[in-house]
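Most newcomers find our protein records easier to grasp once they have seen one. The structure tokens are whole numbers drawn from a learned vocabulary of backbone shapes. The record below serves as our worked example for the rest of this section.
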Amino acid sequence: MNNNEQFAIEFRDVSLSFDDKRALDEMSFQLERGQMICITGVSGSGKSVLLRVASGLLVPDEGQVFIEGHSIAGLDEQGLLALRSATMGIVFQEQSLFTGMSVYDNTAYRLDEHGWPEADTERAVREILRFVGLEDDMEKFPEELSVGMGRRLEFARVLVGWPKIMLFDEATSGLDPINARIMLDLVIRARDIHQMSSLYVTKELHEIPYLASHSAVRQQSGEILIQSVAGGSGGPANQMRVILLEDGRVAFLGTPGEFESSNLAAVTRMTHPAPGAPSTDTYIPDPWSRGKKPVS
């Protein structure tokens, strides 16, 4: 086994430019199997570009990208599609639902495309719709769903079949605080119960401590509970890391606690922006702790 096979995703000195402007600049990091990395930074720092390179949707000018130990360099479009389909799900900001299909058919679409047997497809679709709380809405169409329900259907479409790797691009964008927390809890459940490796892009800095301080536990009854994690207790939440991007470079890589306490200029510019700085959110340790209102 090669050393890089222990990683779900690995970037080695990856650079990419658009019109002579560096979007990613000599970027290197590793996403371990079962680990979550939160990626943050101001608008234009390279977050979404990083996800598209990780998924093979963009090809770097320099450097190497490995998925499950396999270099994606030189793969043709068919090979990249096969690799994505076999290993990862991607939640982008843009809606991708088929308006003329029911909740069930939207969820089953990817499995049908890959020739899953009908019985296996039905079992997988019912399982994931139960997971996201849409089991009773299978016959509805997207226009009949609320914004939050539609976003959960987006999750169901990419989580069905439980891919090994998940890429989230501002998964809670445009949601109210209640639905945003529902989505975060779904992310935690996928991470902890199904041991998914994930890159989670967000500008909402208060999401980082929530993801780091909560874990999902399956009870003997089969019920899955989201609970607070004591420091140093192990598990996916305590393995979480934060990457801060600045001008396409990794300006910080460390634990959520290290990010919160860091005095690095790149971090403080993000957590305590000066007047007139690029728009972002301030750092809030836990907006959903008792006695605090959710942050919109």
Observations:
- The longest strand covers residues 7-18.
